[in-house]
Amino acid sequence: MKQYLFAIATLTGTIIGAGIFTLPYVFFKAGFLSGLFLLVALGGIVLLINWLFGEVILRTSGEHRLIGYAQHYFGKKGKIIATFSTVFGFYGSIIAYLILGTGFLRIVFEPIFDHGSTFWALVFFVVSALSILVGLRIISLIELVISFLLVVIALFFAFKGLPYLVSGSGFPLFDWHYQFLAYSVIFYSLLGSSALPEMRQILRGKEKKFKSAIFWGVLIPVVVYILFALSIAAVSGPGTTKDAISGLEPFFGKGAILLGSFFGFIAVFSSFIVLGLSLRKNFQFDYGLNRHLAWLLVCFVPLAFYLLGIKDLLKVMGVVGIVMGGIEGVLLILLYKKADQHGDRQPEYNITVPVWVLWGLMALFIFGMIYQLATL
């Protein structure tokens, strides 16, 4: 049971990250009905894609990450595509975590220690980067505790915001102009397939629980997102901010801002660790780099981009979610089809999906990528 909970927490902690704090903003802009529909629909799509990837993992002997699976089934070209999607997607997410983590630390500590954003970015970076060196077992335990805290805090905000949500005051139902923004941010906030190889490692010997662990690992973030996004947007109304937290002070006071900032820090911190650990192992297992060189590449390249001025949170999320997530989605579908024919072990579960559904998903991903690149 402990391994099962650890596996769920690993996926939940990877998904719940920087994206959650932009959800209230896009929910309010796109509208109540649109935000809710997109979150549920995209949650279902992400669950299916993760199930497909889980089956690929179970059909393939040996320990790999996405890059390794792409090379195994598609050769050098597959490895190049997967490397582009994985490395740049991970780097973009780590930059997003640096942006938000820095902001949350400033809110909490700057009244006591008056330093600039660069100082707090370095503090967040040092703590997070060193944590990537911690073993998987400890990381999983941290994820379990943090996931529980995130749910509790989200429920707290939902309870506080319930009267505002029931009244529906100033909450639009639908606004066509913000649909793609909502799609890109929500899609980004649900990405977490990089945690699946870690889950398989945790569940070694108990792979029959892999499918249900993926289900709960996706469902919990969707529920937390709905509660958090609707409650915060209903409370803040037109004053809903892109970071979700700073717009709450007129309603809940400084205490709520500090609590929300703590919520933000632990969410971003936990995702940074799991994502960084996964990318480090990509470099180790799929490119043969030693542990310390892989760690340096994982941590210091995103820091350099951040220090050079890449700090537009929504733009970073849009590119990562739509472009890199889209490439990964198409690749995972193709891997699923290939592994189904050429896998070298019997999986503990298998998913049967109509071909038209798979083609439809690939078309959705490709259209999103084209539109995002055209509007940069």
**Class from secondary-structure proportions:** mainly alpha
- The ordered string of helix (H) and strand (E) elements is HHHHHHHHHHHHHH
Q: Taking all residues together, what is the mean pLDDT?
A: 83
Put simply, the count of helices is: 14
CATH C-level name? Mainly Alpha
Euclidean distance between termini CA atoms: 46 Å
Structure in words:
Helix 1 crosses helix 9 (210-236). The chain has one domain: Amino acid/polyamine transporter I (Up-down Bundle). It is built from 14 helices and no strands. It has 376 residues and is mostly helical. The longest helix is centred in the N-terminal third of the chain and has 44 residues, at 66-109. It starts with a helix and ends with a helix. The radius of gyration is 20 Å and the shape is globular.
Brief descriptors of the model:
376 residues, mainly alpha, Amino acid/polyamine transporter I, 78% helix, globular
